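In this section we walk through a basic example: taking a raw amino acid sequence and producing a predicted 3D structure, encoded as C-alpha cells. The instruction is simple. Fold the sequence below.
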Amino acid sequence: TTKSKLTKVSIMKKVEIEKTMQCNIIGSGIFVSPKGVLENSSSVGLALIVWTLTGVITAISVLCYAELGVTIPKSGGDYSYVKDIFGRLAGFLRLWIAVLVIYPTNQAVIALTFANYALQPLFPSCFPPERALGLLAAVCLLLLTWIYCFSVHWVTRVQDVFTTGKLLALCFIIIMGIVQICKGHFYWLKPEHAFHPLQPYDMGRIALAFLQGSFAYAGWNFLNYVTEELIDPYRNLPRAIFISIPLATFVYVCANIAYVTAMSPQELMASNAVAVTFGEKLLGVMSWIMPISVALSNFGGVNGSLFTSSRLFFAGAREGHLPRLLAMIHVNRCTPIPALLFTVRSFFHSLKEYDIYTLINYVGFINYLFYGVTVAGQIVLNPNVSLAWPVIFLVFWTFLLIFSLYSEPVVCGIGLAIMLSGVPVYLFGVYWENKPKSFKSFVVKLNHLGQKLFMVVYPSEGSERWK
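The resulting C-alpha cell sequence is shown next.
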C-alpha cells in the first residue's frame, strides 16, 4: 500500500469519526430524561427552566473543554486532562470510575431505554417485564459489539442510519407540538399553571432534576475523547461543539414543550415511555412510528457509547493505567476487540439495576464530580486566562454535588466509594513498579494468550498501516 493511499484512508476515517461523534451530541436521553426532570422539578415551568439552564451550563462546560482540548490535544478527554494537570493518581481515578461505572451504566441506561420503547407496543396497558427488558438490552449490546469487532466502517454506517430515527422522532414531536399550540392546547404552558407545584419544591430534588437533564446532553464532550483523530482539531473541535450545544438545547426545550401540549404532568410522570404516550395521543393509527423511531435512536446511542469507551480504554492502556491488552487492535480489521469485550462484561454488571432513573442519578453524580475537577484544572493550567466561565461552572457544580449527595446519599455514596477503591489498585498496579519477576512473567504470558486468542497487536508494534 502506498503512503498516499494510506493518508487518504486515514483522512476518510477521521471524517467518519468526526461525523459519528457529532451525531451523539443530540442524545437519546431526551426520550428518557423528561420524566425524571419533571418529577424532581415539581412543576412544568421549573422543568423547562432546568432544561434551559442545563443547556447553558453545558455550553459553559464546552467552552472550558474546548480550550483544554486545544491546549492538551490528546485523545482520552478529561482523563488525559486530569492526568496531565493533577498527576497520574487523579487521572487513574477518573479512568477507574469511567471503566467501572460511567460507561457501563450509560450503556445500560440507553440499552434499557431501547428495550423499553421496542417492547412498549407489545404491552400497551402495563410496563414490559424486567426480564424481557434486560434480555433485549443485552441482545442490543452484543449485536453492536459484534458489528464493532468486525468493522469500524460499519460502526459509522450504523450511526448514520440510526441517527435518522432520532431526528425523525424529534421532528415529529416538535411539529406536533407546534400544531397543538396553534390549536390552543397550551394549558400547562400558561404561567399560572406552569409553575403550580405538583409537590413541594425541594432543593435536593431540583439538583437531581439537573442530573436527569444532564444525561440528555451527555454527548457534549465525546469529541474530546478522539481529539487526535480529528482533522484540524484546533478549528473543528470548538466549531463542532459550539454549533451542537445551542441546537441541542433548542431541540430539547421544544420537545418538552410539545410533550405537555398533549399530556398532563401526571400522565407524563406515569408513562415509562413518554414519546410512545405522546404518539398514541396525537398520531392515531400512525402511533407505531414513534416507538420504532425512538428504539432506533437508542440503538444508535449504544453504538456511539461503545465507540467512545474503546477510545478511552486505548488512551488509558497507552499510559500504563490499564492492561496493555486493552490497547490492542485486530491485525486485519484494526478494531479494539479486547476493550470492547471488557466493556460488555462491565455492562452486564450494571444491567442488574433495572431502574433507569436511579442509574442516571448514579452516573450523573460521578460525571459531574470529575467535570468540576477537570474545569478546575483549566484554572490551574492557565491562571492568566479569563476565569468567568470556569468560576460560574464551579459555583453550579458545588450546588449540584452538595444537594445531590443530600438527596441521594446512598446512590452518590456508592459512586464515591467505588472511586476511592481505585487508590489501592493504583498503588499496586501502577505506582509499585518493582513487582516480582514471577508476577511480571504471568502478565506477559496473559497478554500473549490474549493476543493469540483475539489476533490483536499493539498499534505501535506494526508498520505504518496500524496508524
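Looking at the output, two observations stand out. Residues 1-457 form a domain with the Amino acid/polyamine transporter I fold (CATH 1.20.1740.10). Residues 1-22, 461-467 have pLDDT under 50 and may be disordered. In the next section we compare this with other chains.
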